[in-house]
Amino acid sequence: MDITFGLIVGNREFFPEELAIKGRERMLKVLKEEGFEVICPSGDDTKFGVVGSWEDAKKCAELFNRNRDKIDGLIISLPNFSDEKAIANTIRMSGLKVPILVHAFRDNMSQMDPLHRGDSFCGKISVCNNLLQYRIPFSLTTLHTVDPEEKIFREDLKWFAGVCRIVKGLKNIRLGAVGARPSAFNTMRYSEKVLEAYGLSVETIDLSEIIAEVNKISDSDPKVKEKINEIKRYANIVEVSEEKIKVLAKFYLSMEKWIKNNDIKAVAIQCWTSIERNLGIMPCAIMSMLSEKMVPSACEVDVTGALSMYILQLASETPSALVDWNNNYGFEEDKCIIFHCGNMPKYILEIKWIGYGEIIGKVVGSEAAFGACTGRIKTGPVTFLRITSNDAHGRLKAYIGEGELTDDSIETFGAYGVIRVPNLQNLMKHVCRNGFEHHVAINRSHVARIVYEALNNYLGIETYWHNKYT
């Protein structure tokens, strides 16, 4: 996802204007080097293309308002103390509701005379004070003052771009719910109305309609053959009739059609046990392939689980998976086993084969349980996230944290792995005491700081950050 920033470079008349002129040039150069598009006043719009007065604020706000559909985030850059009121008024008048990063330049210790000292260190405090008075949320750089060319600021830009991706990605999105929640899974209850209050819509469809669509597709349809070949290329398939793979292919076509026609960003599918009884397949492999294509797919109609997957995907720009917090790992209290039947994307799961589901097979018979991915979760960094609707209080809440996917020995079935989370026992207490589900979304990255900032600061989702607030 490409990100475009609106840039406000501050100025104050009785401070060195040369700092503002050069600071603007330096910031624009770094943003270009990092691959971002920038919308910023030019010298024709305001004096030097910076904002230092009420008139500048009006002109800059008008520029941003004309480009409101393009701007994903704002950067306030302070080469000198700058006019804090003009900056706050610019944002208020623009009407933009996007993440804001406040940056201040360093002063040069060898140039602290009146012609060169900028006092941005102090100016940043004043800008933030005014933004809070205006009730405008904002983000801060890692260091209070930092030059744009520094590595740590470039890392801040990448972090802030991730925050912008989440906020942008969650605007007016549509989540898909395919089928009814399995009766046994009360934990998958959620409130559509609470989600709607956050601008998150849920588009539903009865599973029977998808099944009817599958049954309508002709065996001779060339698209069926294309999907069969795609499934076979995706992973090794254990010995099974071509008829089963053909049904999987038709289910794949039906799901992709519905997702495209309804502009669905993430989907939750009923998998227990109607699909098995009516089509004789498990949807896991297709859900794995959809997630690999960046359409997060959760099972058991876990809509807020699918949303959690999508948010991690926006933060990292890589596929996510949904797993169970499933088993202890011996007596190692900071480790546990995570597991699911087999719907994880191969970006996360080292898929050995697509075969029969061991657990559902015991209920419906193995002949009706083909389509689960078997394998081990790949090692590496991991971020986990769970969003749920707190219906009693009419709001969403979440927890976020980071850990490591390990190569610890384990012999079991399905799709599984071992995760190490510092202070895991405290996390499990938080999960249990606050009524979170047994499902959790994972992503092979460390993006907790991005997600926390987006959810807690800009989207109004109360978020517990494990280990930071333990």
Textual characterization of the structure:
- The radius of gyration is 25 Å and the shape is elongated.
- It has helices at residues 17-33, 54-66, 84-94, 120-133, 151-169, 192-197, 207-216, 222-234, 242-261, 274-279, 284-292, 303-316, 358-364, 424-433, 448-458; strands at residues 4-9, 37-39, 73-78, 100-104, 139-140, 173-178, 200-205, 266-269, 297-299, 320-328, 335-340, 349-356, 370-377, 380-390, 395-406, 415-420, 439-443, 462-465.
- Helices cover 38% and strands 23% of the residues.
- It has two domains: 4-169, Rossmann fold (3-Layer(aba) Sandwich); 173-465, L-fucose Isomerase, Chain A, domain 2, CATH 3.40.275.10.
- The longest helix is centred in the middle third of the chain and has 20 residues, at 242-261.
- The chain has a six-stranded antiparallel barrel with strand order 10-11-16-15-14-17.
- α5 (151-169) packs antiparallel against α12, α7 crosses α9 and α8 (222-234) crosses α9 (242-261).
